[in-house]
Amino acid sequence: MKEKIKIFLDSDLLEKYLLGTTNQQETLQVERYIVMYPVVRETYDELQDNLETFAKMHALKTPEGLKEKILARIKSEHLGRRKFFRYAIAASFAAVMFASASYFLWDQNQSLQQENTIVNNKIETLEQDMKQRLEDVRDQFIVLNSPQTRRFNVKGNNNAKDLKAVAYINPVKKLSFINVKNLPNLPNDQSFQMWADVNGKMINLGIIDRSAGKDKLLALPYADNAVSYITIEPKGGNSTPTVENIVAKINY
Amino acid sequence: MSTLLEKHIVELLEERNDKAISLLYEHYGDTLYGVAKKVVRDEELAQDVLQESFVKIWKKSDSYDASKAKLFTWLFRITRNTAIDKLRSVNTKTDREIQMDVSDVYNLGVDSIRPEFMDVRENLDKIESKYQIVLEALFFEGMTQQEASDELNIPLGTIKSRLKIGLRELKKIYGTSMLLALVLNLM
């Protein structure tokens, strides 16, 4: 062990370390020796003292004004650093603002996109709806204007004497409509329902809604020799017509 | 240098109080200026070096570790390395070699007479110049022992032994001057 320390002290590693010229590996080695061996520590301290003495022997009076120059430079460095921190704080604040603004805008964008999809869907539905209605109106126009259209006046039977309706049938265009002009009053738990017997199949055409207006034309499915019925059914409609409650019958 | 003052300066440095630099300059300025001058051999350059060194000391103050080096050792390392870098940036090696021959004679200028260093100066002359040259080459010139051996035409083994003996001689002076200072203080 002593031999190892002697070899170490005989090398110039400690002197190099004193001057700060050792490389990283050498530095680690020297520092380890200093911590581990008191002799090395002592020698190192002695070297430090010697260096200070030796350097002091070469002391020279510093020129006038140099101290002030140095202090001014240190102050500006210090200020620069403070300025840097101030800028850093401002920059972080700006970054936080930017991040939150970005998030806010992103969120806005996201909900606007959703809204946009909904609106687009609505427009599409509306468009389809409009097309459908336009087609209906066109069909109605054709039916009402066509010379081939036959017009039937429909009257209710004894169960519904006030029922008046007009049916328009066009065998060429294969279109038919009914316009229910007048409906007798029914108890609150009953409603009129329309049916069509097309090629032996009974089709539910729905409840006749009085609030829809007097001039509303209701499309009837067309078939040769079809029969339409109006029945009185419980409120909300029935899935099959109640035969004994037939109040009107339209043959076309 | 009293360790108490050293401690105080280190504390100020840790607090990033620029009063530390003022104190450092007062207590080590002349010595560090001497070191810088010794390395660069030019007053103007030495002033630049001292200025840059103090800026480095201020900037790197959080890297100072009192358990690894005395304050002066740390200051010396920074100043010496700054001076050597400066010299390398302005001088070619050949220029330096020529200058070395002229200025190896220690010159005591009028403005460099300071009473507090007078006795150590006188003592310095007591160290034989062959040790002084080796010490200076190693401490100030930025030479490794091998480089000093090549530069001064002295075998490496002799460099090593002269360094050791030179330092021992130095210790004698250091010891007596410290004792003298102590006696003077007590009186």
Describe the structure.
- Chain A has three domains: 2-57, no CATH class; 69-145; 150-251, Immunoglobulin-like.
- Chain A is an alpha+beta fold and 252 residues long.
- Chain A has helices at 2-10, 13-19, 24-36, 38-57, 66-145; strands at 150-155, 164-170, 175-182, 190-198, 201-207, 217-220, 227-234, 246-251.
- In chain A, helix 3 (24-36) packs across helix 4.
- In chain A, strands 1-2-3-6 form a four-stranded antiparallel β-sheet, covered by helices on one side.
- The mean pLDDT of chain A is 85.
- The longest helix of chain A is centred in the middle third of the chain and has 80 residues, at 66-145.
- Chain B has helices spanning 3-14, 19-40, 43-59, 71-90, 93-103, 115-126, 129-139, 145-152, 156-186.
- In chain B, 77% of the residues lie in helices and 0% in strands.
- With 187 residues, chain B is mostly helical.
- The model of chain B is unreliable at 100-118 (pLDDT under 50).
- Chain B folds into two domains: 1-103, RNA polymerase sigma factor, region 2, helix turn helix motif (Rna Polymerase Sigma Factor, Chain: A), CATH 1.10.1740.10; 106-187, Arc Repressor Mutant, subunit A (Orthogonal Bundle).
- The two termini of chain B are 19 Å apart.
- Chain B is globular.
- At the A-B interface, helix 2, helix 4 and helix 5 of A face helix 2, helix 3, helix 4, helix 6 and helix 7 of B.
